[in-house]
Amino acid sequence: SFLFFSFLFYSLCCVWRKTMSSLYPKIEPFMSAHMNVGDPHEIYYEQCGNKNGFPVIFLHGGPGGGCREDDRRFFDPMFYRIILMDQRGAGRSKPTACLEDNTTWHLVDDIELLRKKLGIDRWVVFGGSWGSTLSLTYAETHPDRVVALVLRGIFTLRRSELLWFYQDGASHLFPDVWDEYLEPIPHSEQGDLMSAYYRRLTGSDPEERMRCAKAWTKWECSTAKLYMDDEKIAAAENSKFALAFARIECHYFVNGGFFSYDGQVIDNLDKIRNIPTTVVQGRYDVVCPMKTCWDLHKNFPEADIIIVDDNGHSSSEPGIERELVNAMDELRADLKADRTHVVASTSSSSSMMASPRRQSPQRKMVRDQFRESFDASSPPMTPRRKIRDPNLQSPEKSTTNPEDPHLKNVLHKRPLQPPGGFSHNITFG
């Protein structure tokens, strides 16, 4: 009787989580600290979930956005050792909004320093928007340290992507909000808005800095979701958040992300094509339009792409939120199925082991780097389908034409009813 009602209660909780909220329950860190990465920066980081679990690092957006409490909730806290890090100048890192020694490559070094500090050999890397840029760049720099990538809202900081959002493109969809974004900048300087904002965000007038920081931040907060969210827009009025967000973003953008050349992230994808990767992309993402995700897809045909047709950019939109949680749950099942993977942490738990599950030959191919056995007769643990090209060869021998628009490894999700992120699967190809 007790066991029956316990099971019933657990089942109802699972149903509630899947129907009402995809996120796991709120949790608190079991530790948090600051790490000195060289004057003047001290990076805030925290760990949540299972101390002996499989490590995953969450890389926030912006740059300059910082981590939120809900960012802990994409991951099963019974399985994952969840690590969050506020990047230089962002969130709880010190000093706030600092641009000194703040580049993509400093952040890549910070991530690697944190990995070593925590005694982790290999980990899952999870990031969205700018976090996807940083995740890809870190993986391309240290591919041997990444077990898998889970990405959202692909952004690679190409000049065309920046001009779309900050100069001419998204302005055609949100002309009312765009006028507010233009307001702090004289008409004579509006031919290069990022540079005009940068001069003011780094200028000596504190009132002008704050006015521009809030206008810059409000533009992004207003366009982040398919349906404008007043609560998210109100976050732009938080002076500390807005100043860090606007200054650091603009600093990176006027400097081209500190990459050697435009398109570097896409060009270096060959370095990581053996890393299992899942991408969740909102069809109506205005901040990081799907064009960049599609370019990644054509150059990285092994990655699983999940398109949510009735969502925009934000990770808190219901369809994107659900698919990110599903991706991490599916990866959990893969990691449990692995009886022979290289131990990811010096404190890895034996509780990670479980029976293998069925997978497509192509999915098995890219995951063989950390699995030697699987049972083709085992039933799938989730109902989700990965649509793969049956002719897809191994990464080093792939003959996929980057110009071919009929790549097959896309899970296309069409809404059942707007709004709300509800969707079902259709074949895309």
Please describe what this structure looks like:
The protein is α/β, with parallel strands linked by helices and 429 residues long. It has 13 helices and 10 strands. The chain has helices at 2-19, 104-117, 130-141, 159-166, 175-182, 193-201, 206-223, 230-234, 239-254, 264-267, 290-299, 318-337, 361-367, and strands at 31-36, 42-49, 54-59, 80-85, 123-128, 146-152, 277-282, 304-308, 410-415, 423-426. A 10-stranded mixed β-sheet has the order 1-2-4-3-5-6-7-8-9-10, sandwiched between helices. Strand 5 (123-128), helix 3 (130-141) and strand 6 form a beta-alpha-beta unit. Helix 2 (104-117) crosses helix 3, helix 5 runs antiparallel to helix 7 (206-223) and helix 6 crosses helix 9 (239-254). The protein is globular, with a radius of gyration of 21 Å.
Q: What would a concise description of this structure say?
A:
The chain is an alpha/beta fold and 429 residues long. The chain has helices spanning 2-19, 104-117, 130-141, 159-166, 175-182, 193-201, 206-223, 230-234, 239-254, 264-267, 290-299, 318-337, 361-367; strands at residues 31-36, 42-49, 54-59, 80-85, 123-128, 146-152, 277-282, 304-308, 410-415, 423-426.
